[in-house]
């Protein structure tokens, strides 16, 4: 009995040790991603299951230590560590420990580190976000804050993005036409016409022959608090018979993939979507807010695109007579309506000749500007000079409330009492609750 008991204890001990050994590494580090922004490097450690972690700095030399409990590394992550670097991050080292893995982030200079746990979603597992802040930090700016905008009559900002540039010539067509040259010329002409209209302001992502990454183009628009982004391109096709200009907005499939990027990587969590920050919301609420914002943005993009297409058809042959939809990266700003304009096919002799003509480019830019200005004149955002002018120069109706007097209504609306009487055919100052009064424009 005594021997059997010891045998039982021995087996039980090994069973418990085996279970502990299995459970000690119940999760894997599936992937490590690095994103670089001015003054900030972000690392995302994606796990197969939620795990505890701690983070702390060490000096001489500067480094950050991240301990993740109960995890192991797969070979693909180990093999890819040597590729992880940024402005401040020199390399990532690791060491397996009894209770998990220790990562050491070797730094090129002193940095402030903070970590955030991100919940799993349909695309990614649980993640640990590590942010390394260094150098002089730019102050955080609030994008499209209604409280701020109501204090001033701001311009409607149109971001104009001439595609390609620099080392990327874009499509090469007939008569040695290069896409990057054609679209830069049209972009400048368009900006000139936008800036000529009171209450509108154009911002170019590039005004010279320079190359920009796709998402850097959207970043320029966001930093400018743009109300619209227009990306300008010129098509090419294997068949020279293909021709026609077209206007594009983001597709629903493109929307879904971009939602996944924003919600999963959290690289843009500090940005605002419709004036609401996502970084302090739970996953479900963030998804709902982002989905609503992107649906509204896509619909507005389609409406603007329709207005632009209606003007362009007077200048160019259209490839399609309705706004098309696709998942172009430059269309994927959740909070900025965006359209992409294909100005024609440089692979087509007629259109290449047209696009090589400055006269034609000017007409095309003028038609695009008319479509944009026409739309925003009808749908001026609150707080803009255009909206203020419309309100100032149009009558509106006021419904009399309890306690109102005609003189007080006149004073509040900056209208003289005789003018208010005349506008409403009043012979005296007697008014009643519920009465509708016309307030004449100032």
From TrEMBL:
Q: Does the keyword Signal apply?
A: yes
Keyword RNA-binding found:
no
What Pfam families does UniProt report for this protein, alphabetically?
Amidase_3 (PF01520), AMIN (PF11741), LysM (PF01476)
What SMART domains is this protein classified in?
A: Ami_3 (SM00646), LysM (SM00257)
The main enzyme category here is hydrolase
Which CDD domains would you find in this protein's record? LysM, MurNAc-LAA
Using the record, list the residue span of the signal peptide; answer none if the entry has no such feature.
1-26
Ranges of residues in domain LysM: 396-439
Reactions catalysed: Hydrolyzes the link between N-acetylmuramoyl residues and L-amino acid residues in certain cell-wall glycopeptides
Q: Which UniProt keywords apply?
A: Hydrolase, Signal
Please give the name of this protein: N-acetylmuramoyl-L-alanine amidase
Please give the organism: Marinomonas pontica
Organismal lineage: Bacteria, Pseudomonadati, Pseudomonadota, Gammaproteobacteria, Oceanospirillales
């Amino acid at each position: 009995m005594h021997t059997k008991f010891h045998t039982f204890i021995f087996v039980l001990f090994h069973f418990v040790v085996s279970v502990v050994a299995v459970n000690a590494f119940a999760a894997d580090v599936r992937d490590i991603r690095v994103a670089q922004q001015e003054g900030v490097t972000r690392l995302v450690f994606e796990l197969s299951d939620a795990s505890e972690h701690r983070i702390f700095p060490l000096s001489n030399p500067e480094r950050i230590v991240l301990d993740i409990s109960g995890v192991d590394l797969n070979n693909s992550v180990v093999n890819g560590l040597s590729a992880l670097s940024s402005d401040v991050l020199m390399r990532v080292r690791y060491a397996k420990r009894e209770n998990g893995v220790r990562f050491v982030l070797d730094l090129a200079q002193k940095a402030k580190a903070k970590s955030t746990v991100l919940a799993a979603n349909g695309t990614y597992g649980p993640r640990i976000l590590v942010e390394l802040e260094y150098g002089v930090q730019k102050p955080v700016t609030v994008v499209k804050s209604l409280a701020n905008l109501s204090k001033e009559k701001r311009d409607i900002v149109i971001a104009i993005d001439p595609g390609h540039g620099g080392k990327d010539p874009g499509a090469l067509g007939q008569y040695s036409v290069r896409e990057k040259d054609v679209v830069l010329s049209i972009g400048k002409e368009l900006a000139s016409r936008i800036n000529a209209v009171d209450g509108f302001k154009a911002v170019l992502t590039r005004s010279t022959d320079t190359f920009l990454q796709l998402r850097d183009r959207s970043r320029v628009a966001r930093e400018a608090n743009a109300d619209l982004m227009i990306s300008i391109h010129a098509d090419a096709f294997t068949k020279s018979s293909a021709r026609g200009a077209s206007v594009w907005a983001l597709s629903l499939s493109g929307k879904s993939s971009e939602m996944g990027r924003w919600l999963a990587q959290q690289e843009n969590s500090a940005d605002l979507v419709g004036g609401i920050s996502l970084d302090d919301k739970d996953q479900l609420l963030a998804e709902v807010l982002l989905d609503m914002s992107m649906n509204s943005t896509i619909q507005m993009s389609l409406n603007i695109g329709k207005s632009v297409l209606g003007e362009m058809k007077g200048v160019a042959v259209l490839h399609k007579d309705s706004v098309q939809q696709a998942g172009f990266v430059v269309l994927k700003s959740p909070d900025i309506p965006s359209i992409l304009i294909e100005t024609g096919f440089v692979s087509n002799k007629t259109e290449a000749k047209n696009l090589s003509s400055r006269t034609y480019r000017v007409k095309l830019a003028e038609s695009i500007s008319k479509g944009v200005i026409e739309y925003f004149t009808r749908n001026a955002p609150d707080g803009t000079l255009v909206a203020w002018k419309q309100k100032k120069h149009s009558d509106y109706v006021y419904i009399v409330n309890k306690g109102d007097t005609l003189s007080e209504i006149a004073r509040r609306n900056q209208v003289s009492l005789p003018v208010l009487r005349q506008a409403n055919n009043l012979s005296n100052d007697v008014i009643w609750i519920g009465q509708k009064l016309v307030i004449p424009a100032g």
